[in-house]
Design brief:
The complex is a heterodimer.
Chain A: H1 6-43, H2 46-61, H3 64-87, H4 95-121, H5 124-132, H6 137-167, H7 179-190, H8 193-222
Chain B: E1 6-15, E2 18-28, E3 33-37, H1 44-51, E4 59-64, E5 67-68, H2 74-82, E6 84-87, H3 99-109, H4 115-128, H5 144-156, E7 162-166, H6 174-189, E8 193-197, H7 201-207, E9 210-215, E10 218-223, H8 225-228, H9 236-248
């Protein structure tokens, strides 16, 4: 076990940091875009709702692996060439940026549907009442609807987190040095493939467990008294 | 000097290809309480929401103290709505806010009050409707009657010039109706101008200056209760009310 040194542990923990940066950024991008898309889909004009559902269908229908290659080797290359043409200097889009973009846009599609369902579950009368008090439509959505939407979305959102965490392993293929890629590197140099991939699986499992538990605790802390007496069962 | 505070002029509205309101006009003087009655689907609710511009009327206009809502831009419509309080049949409280914050939220976000000032005002309004001790409870922890009183406090906090009430007691259990009606009586006595759709005719006849009977999107008849509900008046209103009384008993 001499080859399994502290430096290896530190190396793997660096991967945990990288994965965390990746999925936290992606989920925040997804949260921001998903919120806007859900609001547009539920309260906006019909044409904008159709645009959103087109977006959702695209990201629902194309594998993340394909999207990673498409963005990192296809679109990122285009952007780099355009940058060279206009600014006469080289820009290199790091794999992490591509991975965050792909996972973020993908998560936006899924999160928008989580929030959309939550919005539709809030009685329409509340929006009417907010307008009756003098709020504009967008203000009423922001002040009255969204705080309720985020609260009731937490259980579904923790599901999205666990999926996102596991999907993040795909970023390995475009060269992001996250958990999976570091275990692969250690496995290759130590030839302890079975052990390393069991440990990799266990680490993802633990990170999923911690995140879901934290979100469940958050849900219980901020849920509205009297509404939904029980928290998520996980 | 007795210019009406609220004038509704020739409002028409078609929804889903069906004419819901057909050229409806009415007016309210300061401090007056008028009652809208009539069968369900007669257009009462749509009329109230059109007056509030929660539904834009297809034709016609609403004048509040002589200012035309039809000529206002979208921004001004928000200010216009602020001046008219609206009470809904199913309360429409904000589920995630406790009673005092339900009242305070618009004071802060619309009127720009500080949190402390808004909460202070909210507690005053809750006290006025007899709910001072329920200020920190959430809607899901309140009874129907209490919820409706919170919604009245919420509307009053905006200092409305007119209140529109859309069947405020229809969703309540019979034993809870009284507490809401008492608040409405107090409001009326304090000089609030109100237009109320209701089936509580026994209650309304003693308070109202005019009963407006709506049917099939129009005003079928209107007049003081002493005339419309007089024994043997044979009015459409008296006929409707006697059926209500048969169904609901004397106080219905």
């Amino acid at each position: 076990m001499a080859d399994f040194s502290w430096s290896t542990v530190v190396y793997i923990l660096g991967g945990v940091g990288m994965t965390s940066v990746l999925i936290i950024s992606a989920m925040l991008i997804g949260l921001a875009i998903g919120t806007v898309m859900a609001s547009v889909q539920v309260y906006g004009p019909a044409w904008s709702g159709r645009m959103v559902s087109l977006y959702v269908w695209f990201f629902r229908g194309v594998p993340i692996l394909v999207l990673m290659f498409l963005f990192h080797f296809g679109l990122a290359g285009l952007v780099e060439e355009a940058y060279l043409y206009f600014f006469k200097t080289r820009l290199r889009i790091p794999p992490l940026a591509s991975a965050i973009t792909v996972l973020g846009l993908c998560s936006a599609a899924y999160q928008s549907q989580i929030f959309r369902g939550a919005m539709q579950s809030i009685p329409a009368g509340q929006l009417k009442a907010a307008k009756a008090l003098g709020m504009s439509g967008p203000q009423a959505v922001r002040v009255i609807i969204l705080p309720q939407v985020f609260r009731i979305s937490i259980p579904a959102w923790s599901n999205e987190y666990s999926i996102m965490l596991k999907d993040s392993a795909i970023a390995f293929v475009i060269g992001v040095s996250e958990i999976m890629s570091r275990f692969k590197a250690v496995a290759t140099t130590t030839h302890r493939h079975l052990l390393m991939y069991i440990l990799a699986g266990a680490l993802y499992f633990i990170l999923t467990w911690i995140g879901v538990k934290l979100l469940a605790a958050l849900y219980n802390k901020i849920r509205t008294p009297g509404l939904a007496e029980t928290g998520p069962s996980n | 000097m007795n210019q009406p505070i609220l004038e509704v002029k020739n409002i028409s509205k078609t929804l889903g290809g069906k004419l819901i309101l057909d050229d409806v006009s009415l007016s309210l003087n300061r401090g007056e309480l008028k009652v809208l009655i009539g069968p369900s689907g007669g257009g009462k609710s749509t009329l109230l929401q059109c007056i509030h511009y929660l539904i834009n009327p297809d034709k016609g206009d609403v004048l509040l103290e002589g200012r035309s809502a039809a000529e206002m831009g979208r921004r001004n419509i928000c200010a216009f709505r602020q001046e008219i309080g609206m009470i809904f049949q199913d309360f429409n409280l904000f589920d995630h806010l406790n009673a005092e914050n339900n009242v305070a939220v618009a004071l802060r976000k619309v009127k720009g009050l500080t949190k402390e000032a808004a909460l202070k005002r909210a507690r005053q309004e809750l006290e006025r409707v007899g709910l001072a001790d329920k200020a920190t409870l959430y809607p899901a922890q309140l009874s129907g009657g209490q919820k409706q009183r919170v919604s009245i406090a919420r509307a009053l906090a905006m200092d409305p010039k007119v209140m529109l009430l859309d069947e405020p007691t229809s969703a309540l259990d019979p034993e809870l109706i009284g507490e809401v009606l008492n608040v409405i009586v107090d409001l009326s006595k304090s000089g609030m101008t109100m237009l109320m759709a209701t089936h509580q005719i026994g209650f309304a006849r003693h308070l109202t200056s005019e009963i407006i009977f709506m049917e099939r999107g129009g005003i079928a008849e209107a007049g003081p209760p002493s005339v419309l509900l007089a024994e043997g008046s044979c009015s459409r209103t008296a006929d409707f009310c006697s059926k209500l009384t048969e169904l609901l008993g004397k106080n219905g």
